[in-house]
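Data deposition worksheet. Section B asks for the primary sequence of the deposited chain exactly as it was used as input, without tags or linkers unless they were present during the calculation. Section C holds the resulting structure in C-alpha cell form. Section D is free text for depositor observations; keep each observation to a single sentence. Incomplete worksheets are returned to the depositor.
Section A, Depositor: J.P.
Section B:
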Amino acid sequence: MTQICSVFSQLLQLFSRGEFAQAVKEHHAERSAKGFPCWGQFVAMQFCQVAQLKSLREVCMGLASCEAPLKHLGISETPKKSTLAYANEKRPWELNQTVFEQLLEKCQAEVAARGGRKKFRFKNKLVGLDGSIIDLSATMFDWAKYKRTKGAIKLHLLLDHNGYLPVFTVVTEGKHSEVALAGLRLEAGTILVIDRGYNDYEWFAEMTQEGVFFREADEGEHRVRRGGRVCGSGAGECFAGPDHQLARVEKSRRRARAVPTYRILERREAGNPGVFHEPAALGGIDNRR
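Section C:
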C-alpha cells in the first residue's frame, strides 16, 4: 500500500490530536454532534485558509476532488456544505483560541531551543507594528464599518522578529485609524519598526524618554534642514543640532525637494546607537503657513 503524506498533511502534523481532543472535551464542543467531529471541521477550515478559498462550496468541492483518500488527514469523508455551515455557526469559538495558544507555545519553545540563531542578529529586541485590512461582507457584518458598499476589519499586529511570532493583536473596524493605537508601551531598548500611519509625535517623545528606539519604514526620506541648507541624513554628513529642523523629502520626476516640518531636534546622546535624529521639543508650535 502506498503511503500518502501530502504537504497539507504535514501541516496538520503540527497540531497534536491528543491536545486537540482535550480542548474539545474542555469546551464541550461536540455536544449533540451527529457524525461530524470537530477535527473534520478544523481540517476543512484549515484547507480553506491554506488554499485561500472564498466560500464553503469551494472547500467541500476542493476536499472532494483530492485524488487520494482523506484518511491521511484524519477524516473519513468530505463534509457537506450545510453540515460545515451549521458547525461553524453553533460550535464554540473558544476551541480555536485554545488550539492557537497550544500552537503558539510550541513555536515559542522551538524558538527558545534554537537560541535565536539566524543570519541577521540584533543586539536589541526587534518588533514590527502594522495594520492589515480584511474584507468582509457589508450585508452580513453590518458592524464592520469601512465603506458604504464594503465591510472590513483592520488587524493591528505586533510581530516579534525573533521567530516571527505575534506578541498581541487588536481587531478594529476597517476605517479605524492606526494613530488610535499610538501609546503602546514597550520595554526599554526595544527597536520598533512602524509605517507612516502610526505617526504621533507625543508617542515618539514618550518612547524616546523610555529608551525605546523606533524606525519608520516608508518610501519617504527624512533629512535635516539648518537654515536654508539641507543636510543629508547619512552617517558623517550632518548631525542634528539644537537649531536643526526635520525635513521630509518629497520625490518628484525632476528633483527631490525637502519640505520642512519645523520640529526642533537636539543632538543625539553619546552612546545611543541607530537613530541619528531624535525629536526633542515635539510639543512646540507648528509654524507652517
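Section D:
The first strand starts at residue 126 and ends at 136.
Helices lie at 7-12, 17-27, 38-50, 56-64, 81-90, 94-114, 201-209.
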